[in-house]
Amino acid sequence: MLRLTRRLFLLACCGAPFTVALGAQELSARLDQANILHVLAPGLHFLKGKSLERLKDGATVAILGQLTLSLDANVTIATRAIARFALSYDIWEERFSVSRFAAAHQETAARGASHLSPEAAEAWCLDHLTVDTSVLPIGRQFWIRLELRIEDGREGNQIIGEPGINLTRLIEIFSRPARAQQQRWQLDAGPLHLADLRRSSS
Amino acid sequence: MISNRHRLLALAFFLFCCLRVSAGTPQQPANRISSSVNVNSRYIIEQVQVIGFPASKLSDSLRSKLQKLVGSAYDTEALDELAHSLRKDLHARNVTQHLARGSSPEMVRVVLEVERRSVALDLSVPKFLYHSKQGWSGQMLASTAVARNHSFIFGLVSDGDELTERFTGIQAAYENLHVGTDLLRFRFAFEDYHQQWNRATTDALSDPTVLNAALRTGAPELYRARRNFQPSLAYALTPSLVVTGGLSFERLQETLPYLQTEGANAFAAGLQYHKRFDDENGGGRTADASYSIRVASRALGSDYLYTRHHWTGGYNFTRGRHSLSDQVTAGYITGRAPLFERFVLGTSSLLRGWNRYEIDPLGGHRLLHNSVEYRYRMANVFYDTGSLWSHGKVPKLKHSLGIGIRHSIFSLAIAFPVRQGRVDPILMVGMNY
Fold first, then answer.
1. Structural domain boundaries enclosing B252
2. Out of A91, A156, A162, closest to residue B40 by CB
3. Which tens digits make up the pLDDT trace of B243-266?
4. CA-CA to A81 of 20 to 30 Å: which in A47, B156, B315, B381?
5. In Å, how far are A113, A146, A151, A181, B197 from A178, measured between CA atoms?
6. Closest CA–CA distance from residue B159 to any residue of chain A (Å)
């Protein structure tokens, strides 16, 4: 039996907040009826800090999201989905509004939701960042990686064109490290099996 | 006549300038997120407020842009462009946008917070001109603002366009933009120039006939250098009306063989009016008027004793791509005034197309001039008419016509004097003239 020494107690006390924080940002997944994978990260809050200040100052904040599936612990990517979300904050209603912009060849119309709380806006973004699992071999274990970053002006100019957003540019952006001042988040989950994932109707 | 070399030079310069302007124009945000995505785009802007910079010091163009946003829907693209213009025009470190609730639901207030540099250095070229008869003229200024309200300016100038002389030298000034109040400014200016005289001017002064005529109003003297110290105060009576007053201590060093120094020390005062009226349909009108007086007196130890009055008035009307403007200038001198105070026609703005030394190589004591200009997009045509004369002479009205291209601050114009005989056009190319 492990003896609780003073040193061990102090270590446990200091490490507890980090353990709780890491645990709170856990990434989980579910499948809908069309075998599309949705992710959930209830502990991940990206509407905070500088981006939240900008939203409350009336700006539109764009968030780039990438969801990748791999068969080898995120070494090589088996499939990926990339999306761009534009968020704004209603100064009178004190609620968030979000729109999703898909890649040019995927969808033309932007979809969105309004009158959302911060948590609901974050959840909406994650729920609309989906990836098709049909490319995964049946029975193989896989890993999920979720990456989010607040877009800066220079990136926006590169990826958004007349017909929509440029997917190649988006992949290039996610392939290089984020700038020092850029807010970014990354969560991993796995190994997982498709058969073990919770299924939902939508 | 204009030589091929001049034509090619002017064309190359103008194309260069146009390219520079195009390159300097910020890219239009065609690829940004549409403003309609922002949920606040359904609200109407009630007020746009600039903090961190005195509103009274904003340019008319910026004020007009601010005003245009009031009453329109909240538009992030338009506000981004406005913030960019503010940052550029005010040489600010940063401009931050804030949004606040308006006085009633559906209304919002926009606050633009200007973060100024503690020490700002600004280089500018207020004038650059090539004139096919008078050659090059140019002015370069370096200014620095210290502790928000103190400004130091240093400049180099070589100008063969404004006066009968070509003056080359340095300019320096100190400005306090807040003397107790934002409405009152203090300026201390220093100028030190060396002169070059046109042969027509020196010949005229050695011609007994011309000299005798000039002697009636006081014989002018050539000088080889002049130095000026000029303290002044400016007070904004209203945002459109500014009154100035000060002193000018100008020392003129005469040419050989005398080499003595004479003073042209004067009380200087002026009144400037500028008002812009924006139409609802996007057009606009501007009205300008100014009056200045310089009284050189023995009370200030002046050797030259004279009074110089100068009036200008202008009206500009713009609708869509059409613009029509009229400028009137008048001047009147009594007493014996030095050559730099005398009026000149045949410059890049007054009676364009005429050679000033043909009109009067010594300048005149009376001036009346009117210029009408019509502009469609970049192209413009103008008609100048004016007269320059001195006491005891009969004024003769002269006319000139011209065409040109104007893009931003850059201009190219060919002006023709209207007279019998040969046509001798004058080419002018440059900026801010």
1. 119-346
2. A91
3. 999 999 999 998 766 668 899 999
4. A47
5. 28, 14, 10, 8, 64
6. 44
Contact A91 B101 (CB under 8 A): yes
Average pLDDT, chain B: 86
User: Confidence class of residue A185 from pLDDT cuts 50, 70 and 90?
Assistant: confident
- CB distance B38–A114 less than 8 Å? no
* pTM as predicted: 0.62
Residues on chain B bordering chain A, Cβ-to-Cβ distance under 8 angstroms:
27, 30-33, 35, 37-40, 43, 74, 76, 79, 96-101, 105-106, 108, 110
- Strand stretches in A34-78, DSSP E: 36-40, 61-70
Could you tell me which chain B residue has the CA closest to the CA of A166?
B31
For residue B96, the chain A residues in CB contact (below 8 A) are 57
pLDDT tier for residue A21 given thresholds of 50, 70 and 90: very low
Residues B131 and B79 grouped into a single domain = no
Q: Which one, of B348, B342, B353, B349, lies nearest residue B165 by Cα? A: B342
Instruction: Respond yes or no on whether ipTM tops 0.90.
Output: no
Burial of residue B307 (number of CB atoms within 10 Å: 0-12, 13-18, 19+): middle
Cα separation, A19 vs B6, whole angstroms: 78
How close does chain A come to B179, measured CA to CA in Å? Answer: 35
Q: Are residues B354 and B262 in the same domain?
A: no
Which amino acid belongs to residue A9? F
Q: Which residues of A touch B37 (CB under 8 A)?
A: 60, 86, 88, 99, 110, 112
Are B70 and B204 contained in the same domain?
A: no
When CB atoms are compared, the residue of B31, B76, B105 closest to A157 is: B31
Q: Which of B346, B367, B384 is the last residue of a domain?
A: B346
Q: How many domains does chain B have?
A: 3
CB contact under 8 A, B40 and A57: no
Residues B269 and B243 in one domain: yes
pLDDT at A16 over 60: no
Residues B131 and B276 both lie in one domain: yes
Residue B403 placed within a domain: yes
B238 plus B367 within the same structural domain: no
